[in-house]
Amino acid sequence: MGVHLLSCLFCKLGHFLLLVPEPGRVGDRLRLLVPALFPVMSLFLGGCQPIGPAHLQHDQLAYSRALGEVQKREMLLNIVRLRYGEPPAFLDTTQVIAGYNFSRSFSGGYYGYPASAVSNYLFGSGTLSQAETPTITYQPLTGEQYAENVVRPISPTAIMPLSLGGMAIDTLLRLTAQSIDGLSNVRGVGPFGGGSVRFYLLLHDLRQLQLAGAMTVRISTDDPASSTPGKGSKQGGGIGQGNGGNSGDSGSAGSGEHIYLVLTTTADSNLQAIQGEVRRLLHLEPNTAEAEIVYGPYPKKQGQVAVLTRSMLAMLTQLSYEMEVPEQDVRSGRTLPTIGQVGIESRPEVAIHSGKNPPSESYVSVFYKKCWYWISDTDFRSKEAFTMVQVLSTLAATSHSGGAVVTIPAG
After folding, report:
1. Does residue 197 contact residue 207 with C-beta atoms inside 8 Å?
2. Structural domain boundaries in the chain
3. What region does 194 belong to: left with phi over 0, alpha with psi -120 to 50, or beta?
4. I want to staple 88 with a disulfide (CB 3.0 to 4.6 A). Which of 78, 276, 306, 350 is the partner?
């Protein structure tokens, strides 16, 4: 309000000067200058609008993009580090505080002497300053939090609902499942990487059913023991809650969430045949409509589907041995050979390339020990799978502290 008052005073002063008789050339020039000058001062000093909203519209998106890019590069760098025998390191951005300071001032006046003097003059000065002081707080992932987020397997109750959001269930299980009902996913290192052919056939069938709407998953907090056992929908103990329930049937009946694979009714004979093949691969009864998904290598009761899930460490390690590395690094013993064939697939789920020169088009890239590693921006399948890895990493996080906070004072 003080700025507006000062502006009005300058405007009144300008009108007063127009009324002062000023014989001579200097006075005439000043009378012409004053009405043009004081509106400029009014514009400079007036309109004191808050700067917070304008910065918020820009900076919230800018910080969000920056955090997203950093998280992508950190994830890719950890995959590369694991390939070369280095431990992964995670640094959480816990807080971002962006402070702004904007100030402006103007001073001026008019010196008038007797009409015969030529020293009459109008003077003024102004200052404008703006400063930004961002403060970013990082916290390394260590101790129990590191064990929870990186080392312990992710619960099936956290993984399977992602398929409800449109994520491809074959990609999801290929990344997270070490085995399903004893059918093994690719593991370890070597030219072929192992893995059961039936595991990949199962994933292919599940994806076909998902696309056709003939398969879904259901989440329930009901007591599995209270349901009808004929359908195999809710039998046996719970899965446990969060990552803590990944060591087996740690949850008691009725505690935590329970997840079920649901084969929906369809009149399509082709889809019925695929559903029958899924039941056969999962050792389910021919008419089973629902099966509870539990953690473990094998089901403990009829009507269950056992999924042995991976930890983030195991997931990233597997991706690291499927990535491309320079041949000289393999020959020199710096790393092991790349897995050439993943099950019945001819390409890795996330195709990571390497080269001496920076990529021209990349979704994400990092520089590590004189070599560039990247995911191509034109490889949608790899980008989708890499996004899943990031989502799974967020789900695996069990930090009790707040996440990244962007604080932008409104001024």
Report:
1. no
2. 1-48+106-127, 51-90+141-152+314-411, 153-310
3. left
4. 78
